[in-house]
Specification:
Blueprint (H helix, E strand, L loop, with lengths): L1 H12 L7 H31 L11 H7 L5 H13 L4 H9 L4 H10 L2 H9 L5 H13 L2 H15 L13 E6 L5 E6 L2 H17 L9 H19 L14 E3 L1 H5 L8 E3 L4 E2 L1 H8 L3 E2 L2 E3 L5 E4 L3 E2 L3 H11 L14 E5 L14 E5 H7 L4 E5 L7 E5 L5 E2 L3 H6 L12
Antiparallel strand pairs: 1-2, 3-4, 4-5, 6-9, 7-8, 10-11, 12-13, 13-14
Helix pairs in contact: 2-4, 2-5, 3-4, 4-6, 5-8, 6-9, 8-9, 10-11
């Protein structure tokens, strides 16, 4: 182990800037092989620890729990290592390729996660020798793409029971959501082919409908924005099941002092699921929401609850949608059903909830406007009656003045940036 640490220290000390592009790629390939070998040795050691009940030494029942608690691995990663360890003796050719560095940990798990006790029992009952498949999968893993191995293992699994009942797609669906200390959320889901197709079709429809000019978001960011928009549309539609007599909605609790203050106010608000928001973010949510005033006593216990009222009533929203047609931020044309009604002068600071004080903004640009950007309606002489946008430094965002001087305002279609 000390020699291994010394070798890693020497690698970390190398000057990568002295390498040519080819040398960088060769070094990367060699490191991948070495990483595979280390993963294989870790997997072999974990399997040995499981067989010898080594975690009992630290008062832990399983190696998975020890990896999560002592090695601080994610539960899914710990499960993968334990699962792969159990497959080592079942597939010796694959295990050898893993130890040599030709097979990755992910490839090992492709087989380990698909060929379990149920599949092994079926193979034994049908007199199927696993050795040829072990050899073939090892070759595929070393020479073909990851997806090719996935397909090969899936074909074997399907062949074990070609005439069996069609599996229930819901049995294999999983969705896990983890909330972090700062309120951000990460998650993972596993879906059957049809369920995955539905999710991809829904998200893709929103991604392809929201492609503004100059968009520098990665595909992953576009997918995430589309997923949030999909949920936003469902919440706004009002057709989701009620929760304890209340329609599902986003709940934000914030003190009045933080709401009226123009400062950022970190950790000033709390959401229904326990996340904390800044006061600026709470004001962003409050622009187009339902407000309930709750009076608290010195001990922070509620003394009275005021009447709940909608900040932007339905008839006003319809008027704003009719006038603006889409998000009014320069270069955007997000449709009305993706937008909030923003108060130019915030209602909590005395701004009227009126047509003149309202603007239609999509989520991304609503956030921008609450963090330094500004939109204002130009009601002057022609070519007036248009929205103008300014950056935080006071400069105006101009898309194309020549066209703006010649063309009438376009609504309710999309902007030229789409």
């Amino acid at each position: 182990m000390s020699e291994l640490r010394s070798a890693l220290d020497a690698l970390a000390a190398e000057d990568l800037h002295a390498l040519s592009d080819g040398q960088v790629l060769d070094r990367t390939a060699e490191l991948v092989t070495l990483r595979n070998r280390l993963d294989a040795e870790l997997t072999r050691t974990v399997r040995h620890g499981e067989l010898t009940q080594a975690p009992e030494h630290d008062g832990i029942r399983t190696m998975r729990s020890w990896l999560v608690g002592h090695a601080r691995l994610a539960p899914t990663e710990a499960s993968r290592i334990v699962r792969s360890g159990r497959a080592l003796e079942l597939f010796p050719a694959l295990a050898a390729g893993f130890a040599e560095g030709a097979v990755t940990a992910a490839q090992m798990d492709v087989v380990a996660s698909k060929i379990g006790s149920v599949e092994l029992a079926k193979a034994a009952g049908q007199g199927i020798d696993l050795a040829p498949f072990d050899e073939a999968w090892t070759t595929v893993a070393a020479e073909a793409s990851h997806q090719t191995l996935v397909a090969a293992v899936q074909a074997f699994e399907d062949a074990l029971d070609p005439d069996g009942p069609e599996p229930d797609p819901t049995e294999g669906r999983r969705l896990s959501i983890a909330k972090h200390a700062d309120g951000t959320v990460t998650g993972r889901f596993d879906l059957d082919a049809v369920g995955g197709e539905k999710v991809q079709a829904a998200i893709e429809s929103i991604v392809q409908a929201d492609r503004p000019k100059g968009d520098e978001r990665t595909r992953a960011q576009q997918n995430a924005d589309a997923f949030v928009q999909l949920c936003d549309n469902q919440l706004a539609g009002g057709s989701l099941p009620t929760l304890r007599t209340v329609k599902p909605h986003v709940v934000v609790t914030v003190d009045l002092e933080d709401l009226v203050d123009f400062g950022a106010g970190p950790d000033a608000a709390r959401t229904g699921f326990g996340a904390t928001l800044s006061a600026a973010r709470a004001r962003w949510v409050a622009c187009d929401s339902t407000i309930t005033r709750i009076g608290l006593g010195p001990d922070r216990l509620p003394l009275d609850v005021g009447r709940t009222h909608r900040v932007v009533l339905p008839h006003l929203r319809k008027a704003v949608e009719n006038r603006d047609g889409h998000c009014v931020f320069a270069g955007c044309g997000a449709p009305t059903h993706w937008c909030d009604v923003h108060h130019l002068v915030e209602w909590v600071n005395g701004g009227e909830t009126s047509l003149d004080n309202s603007a239609l903004l999509c989520e991304r640009h609503h956030t921008k406007v609450h963090h330094g950007f500004r939109v204002q309606r130009d009601d002057g002489a022609p070519p007036g009656h248009r929205w103008r946008t300014w950056r935080p430094d006071g400069t105006e965002i101009l898309i194309d003045h020549r066209c703006s001087e010649l063309l009438p305002e376009v609504r309710p279609g999309r902007s030229g940036g789409r």
